[in-house]
Amino acid sequence: MIDLKKLTIKKAQDGLRNKEFTSLELTNAYIEEIKKTNENINAYLEIFEDAIDQAKKADEIISKGESKTLTGVPLAIKDNLLFKDHKAGASSKILEGYFSTYDAKVIETLKEEGAVIIGRTNMDEFAMGSSTETSAYGITKNPKAPHTVAGGSSGGSAATVAGDMALFSLGSDTGGSIRQPAGFCGIVGLKPTYGTISRSGLMAMGSSLDIIGPFTKSVEDAEIVFNTLAKEDAKDSTCVLEKDRICEKKEVKKIGVPRSFLKGEGINKETLENFEKSLDKLRGLGYEIVDIDIPLMEYSLAVYYVLMPAEVSTNLSRFDGIRYGLSISGKDVAESYKKTKEAGFGKEAKRRILLGTYVLSHGYYDAYYNKAVKLRHKITEEMKKVFNEVDLIATPTTPSPAFAPGAKASPLEMYLSDIFTVPANITGVPAISIPAGNSSEGLPLDIQFMAPHFGEKLLFEVGKKFEVK
Ligand code: GLN
Prior knowledge:
This protein has 469 residues and is an alpha/beta fold. Helix content is 39%, strand content 14%. The model has no long low-confidence stretch (mean pLDDT 96).
């Protein structure tokens, strides 16, 4: 019997190479676990029919001694990643019945590696949300506390790892969608520097913010997946050339805490107390903790909720019933568009399309969109300056532990879940969420570290020391 609970990518690599188990046995062990757990948790939307064949192929590679880093390692992918000839739907009705026509760059890499892609996972519709409540396919429950949500938008991907239904998984992070669910589910979630992992084949939400990243059980595993996937790619013009991925900083001594940013309303008391404990732990590890000030950081959420819907309204215009998925015909093309979008998009998608169209419309463009673009640059400048003083920035990942479905009564309350995660997206810096103990009710708590652009190594260095008990 393979102990899935204790398994990490690192241990699986050893187990596979030393012939303690085959990839087929490992994949079957996950499928057994999925059969037991998924009905209640709703992490997977589909288990791919060819998962077993992929595992058999991986075993052949291993037996020939041609193993690569992720050969034979079973993983799950978010439903917004294209895997050729497999369904992909971004958990939206508008993409019902859609099959991917090509492989995302990350899928291409995983295939070259001989990894085993078990299935696709539930998410908020088109990655808009913080709880999977906007999915057309139901809510994903938190495996660590099933009366709460797994977070979002990549809630399904987080739950596969937290519930031992995959060894790692991929999600996407536009405003926090990897880090927040990782925090809620008590696992590691990495949002890499914008432009390090190709977005080719990721369904676009906010193209200037989106990035793919891993959910894992350890920081070391996050590092392994990141190093494997962070390749340059001509198909994504925003993907940075590897030679240009430079971070001058080589080690971490000082960690900055943006104190004024932690005083906002709606931040849970226990979350803050626990964060102080985490800071003590970091002091104990020899790091100097200093207060920093990023005065404009508090506008990050406002900036995000102008820029992101603007990009969403543009990106989602391609789902018109002609090219992809659902198609409801009307008396002419315009009516077909209307009918398809009316039936295919959920409430939150419609809200953001409207908001985005509004901020981009003539007369409001300068007042909203352009102002937000300017502020984005200012916040980025402030952040860069702070990284001259400190090596990393620490905050909690989430302002509260996981909540129950329905607990966030208004969209605005839900949007506040992103308060700590959004700054990394609008500035493009890398950030990681790491488990940091439990609340008095036994819910997972978290800490987030942000590093300068291309400073993932610094996150891994501190993360590995922090996560050791
Ligand atoms: N929760 C955020 C939102 O609803 C973040 C989404 C994401 O990162 N995809 O926009």
